[in-house]
Amino acid sequence: MKVSDIDLREIIPLLKIGRFKTDLVLFHHTGEFGLISQIDAPKVFWYFDLVTYNDHYFKRQQRDRVAWMKEALAISDIGFCTDGEWVKNHQRILHFHSHILHGLKQGAHEIKTYKSASSPIDILFVGSLNQPRMEFFSDLSAILPSVNLKLLVKHGDKVFGDNLARLISLSKIVIAPDTPIKSSYWSDRVYVMSGYGGFLLHPFAEELSCDYVGGEEIVFYDSSQDLYNKIRYYLEEDDERNRISRNALKRTASEHTYRHRCQTLLQRCIKMGVISKSGETLQKGANYELSSRE
Questions:
Q1: Angle of helix 224-236 versus helix 131-143 axis, rounded to 10
Q2: Residue 241 to residue 219: CA distance in whole angstroms
Q3: pTM of structure
Q4: DSSP code string of 262-282
């Protein structure tokens, strides 16, 4: 099975005349619902973001994301979403149609590490910097003024792939801020940073503790003071940090890559009868080609 990223306007005429066949259409964050609905194939979406969050900074995004989900559900045979809490709430609302919506976490794009002779960066954060996060890091800097803290905006600073893996090799601690986090939602930072060999300090999330063992593969904090205490402790404990990051890397490589997630997605589609068992060649881990436009 070949997995392709193709412009919808190019593919629809080919599908209509039988020049192109597809087992399913998998989409994410598109607004082309009218075009997608024209495709005579099972339609599957995978929404990678938080949908709702009780924070006034998030109100506009929340409205737009809920609207997107409603439109996507209306044309899809099955949908997957990383916001597990939102999925659970809407499974109750959907009642007999609850099989349409399923939770599915993100994963690591790749497993890659670099060795570094030293770690000059005490704490690294890579991601978006909104007002609550700026306040979070301002407080951290005030409490721990001697700590070398490096903040990078993921897209603006072009911190991806090799650049990110090398940066993590120079960092003692990778930190996840305390928002937005739910018991069943967290960003892909967990998997990406662990897949690059990072030592991660992360707010406690109940379901995340099922993916990684606290104190062995990840370190959780449950308050600001707990975070500051753990930063002080782990900055001095090189061996323990390295042991935990190695364990996290191993766990991520064996259970939490996007290949694992795609296998889960296809298994669920087959189980629910959305696609036929001819899709099992990909589900069982056969080689397949990914073509994308970046």
A1: 60
A2: 10
A3: 0.85
A4: HHHHHHHHHHTTSS-GGGHHH
